[in-house]
Amino acid sequence: MSDPLKIVLGYDATEVPGTYACMESILEHASKPVSFILLRQETLRKDNIYFKDRTPDEATEFSRSRFLAPYLVGYKDPVLFMDGADMIVKADIVELFESVPTGIDVAVVKHDYNPLEDRKFNGAAPQSRYPRKNWSSLMLFWANTSSCQRLTPRYVSEATGAELHQFHWITKRSLPAYAPKSDEQIVANRVYGLDEAWNWIPGHSEPRVSFEDAKVVHWTTGTPAQGVKVEYQPLWDKYHGKAAQIAA
Hints:
By secondary structure, the protein is of the alpha/beta class. It has helices spanning 16-29, 41-46, 69-72, 93-99, 153-158, 161-165, 183-190, 233-247, and strands at 5-10, 34-39, 78-82, 87-89, 106-108, 119-120, 125-126, 138-142, 191-193, 216-218. It has a 6-stranded mixed beta sheet with strand order 2-1-3-8-5-9. A two-stranded antiparallel sheet has the order 4-10. Strands 6-7 form a two-stranded antiparallel ribbon.
């Protein structure tokens, strides 16, 4: 019997039912066992795994700690990170793991996402703009690579947000000696591009991918739990109602 697939979910104390809703949607569709790790910042601090003070630009408790995913599986298994509380899965998550080739450091949907609004979550948090935005909201790490092994508790706690979210932790050594070493070349060679269906953002991913073909729906600007009116709310309600009972 194979080991369960490893999935790390962002955890914010203000969004607990949403996290359970994401978990329920994964379990409903998964064709193999999965194992969840919740990024509860209080627990990470107690265990001295994460020690950076939260800054005003961090919209969630796991803005930086998400990059601890390879460490949390001992740098040996493929591990998926998902934002969690604002995502619902519509497909078998096993397909995602099986679609990623070896020989890369991490797989993401390479969004060209430039939000117009200055604030998100119904005005509760500032909207940051930076290159490769939303790439890190869903990441499948090939955790045993030399680049992923750089993501130690100390590095993740001390690195800047730009270093982490723009994938500057990927080392030039991960490319062949003859390969160009520019930032764009490193990303092109070591960050695998997933189909956009795996991180489908309403109002952004259309019309390239339809809602019917979406495999992970990501309400990145806010959810009904944050007082935000969203498109495709029946899908949210389907899982959130059951999860709210579990989390209560």
